[in-house]
């Protein structure tokens, strides 16, 4: 059974809960799921790195809303680049379910319930990881 670690940044607790729920619903019973909560998205890469050898795949969840300073750009760039580097360097799928939004309304639109027709970043991240783990190399 494949093991997945979901790392959830809880800065925006309501959004994180919705992302986490949609990720867990999407993952089927063929996965053993563990969850780690971190304060913000900047802590996600180190939580993944500390557990990189213990799991087959990872899902990063959280939300960043743009403010009046360049903090948004710096945090998003650093976090997303770190996640990508971890995935490539350790050959492990990491689904990126981190919402980047200009305001709370946009963020809430991206974490609608799983019954909504709108996409949910949590379920999209779970789909990405499952796709990589299920669809390994095929013989031609």
Write the layout of secondary structure elements.
Layout: E1 2-9, H1 13-26, E2 31-38, H2 44-50, E3 57-65, H3 71-90, E4 94-101, H4 104-109, H5 121-134
Parallel strand pairs: 1-2, 1-3, 3-4
Helix pairs in contact: 1-5, 2-3
Low-confidence stretches: none
Report Rg.
15 Å
- Please, how many domains? 1
CATH fold group: Rossmann fold
Number of strands: 4
H/E element sequence: EHEHEHEHH
Calculate the terminal CA-CA distance, rounded to whole Å: 26 Å
Q: Assign the CATH superfamily.
A: Lumazine/riboflavin synthase
Mean pLDDT score, rounded?
92
Strand content: 15-25%
Secondary structure tally, helices: 5
Q: How many strands, which pairing sense, and closed or not: the largest β-sheet?
A: 4 strands, parallel
Structural class: alpha/beta
Strand order of the largest sheet: 2-1-3-4
Q: What is the helix fraction of residues, given as a range?
A: 40-55%
Assembly classification: single chain
Write the CATH architecture name: 3-Layer(aba) Sandwich
Specify the CATH class: Alpha Beta
Q: Write down the overall geometry.
A: globular
Entry keywords:
5 helices, alpha/beta, four-stranded parallel sheet, 140 residues, Rossmann fold, 24% strand
Condensed summary:
The protein is α/β, with parallel strands linked by helices and 140 residues long.
């Amino acid at each position: 059974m494949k093991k997945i670690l979901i790392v959830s940044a809880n800065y925006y607790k309501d959004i994180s809960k919705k992302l986490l729920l949609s990720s867990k619903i999407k993952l089927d019973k063929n996965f053993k799921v563990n969850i780690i909560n971190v304060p913000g998205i900047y802590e996600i890469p180190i939580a993944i790195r500390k557990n990189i050898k213990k799991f087959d795949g990872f899902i990063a969840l959280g939300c960043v809303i743009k403010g009046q300073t360049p903090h948004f750009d710096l945090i998003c760039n650093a976090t997303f680049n770190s996640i990508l580097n971890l995935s490539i360097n350790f050959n492990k799928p990491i689904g990126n379910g981190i919402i980047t939004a200009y305001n709370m309304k946009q963020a809430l639109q991206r974490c609608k319930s799983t019954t909504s027709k709108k996409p949910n970043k949590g379920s999209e991240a779970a789909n990405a990881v499952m796709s990589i783990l299920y669809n390994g190399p095929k013989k031609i």
